[in-house]
Amino acid sequence: MRDAVVARWGPDVAPDGVVDRPAIARHAFAAPEERAWLEQLLWPLVGARVHAWREEQSARNPPPRALVVETPLLFEAGLDGLYDATLVVVANEAVRAERAAARGHAAVGERTARQLSQEEKAARADHVVRNDRDLAALEQELAAVLEKLSERA
Predict the structure, then answer these.
(1) Residues 107/69, Cβ–Cβ less than 8 Å
(2) What is the pLDDT of residues 76-85, one digit of tens each?
(3) R_g over Cα of the chain
(4) 3-state DSSP call for residue 55?
(5) Taking the alpha carbons of 121, 123, 124, 129 in that order, is the dihedral positive or negative?
(6) Treating both helix axes as pointing N-terminal to C-terminal, what angle do 2-9 and 32-58 enclose, rounded to 10 degrees?
(7) Host H or E run for residue 62
(8) Helix (H, G, I), strand (E, B), or coil: what is residue 122?
(9) Is the pTM for the entire model greater than 0.85?
(10) What's the rounded Cα separation, in Å, for the pair 52 and 50?
(11) What distance in Å separates the CA atoms of residue 140 and residue 24, rounded to the nearest whole number?
């Protein structure tokens, strides 16, 4: 993948052979066709990697209680079919913006505008968890979902 993005956007996206994610984001979000090109490159790789990892983990003895994969743009990429269940973590927009800014994410509004709304993701997901509070509250909600999933297995 590194070679493909360097061929398309130049060596500034991988100085010294190391992918510079902010540089890639600048190119990918510069035009819809650039983002589409990157997505067409990435999504099949993500799908194949998730599939291989699930196979590997399922072969363990005993198999894990659950496998959790964080997949950005899960529904937008059409990758939700890879999973037995989907979970969406939602939060108040102001909280989300504050957290993104604290992580140094640029063009947050532009990125968010290209994603499904939190409401749409919540409607498509099997489970929805709120993340407006502290880490302990999030862990408690996630544990409850894991318990529900364990009961189904």
Answers:
(1) no
(2) 888 898 899 9
(3) 18
(4) helix
(5) positive
(6) 180
(7) none
(8) helix
(9) no
(10) 6
(11) 36
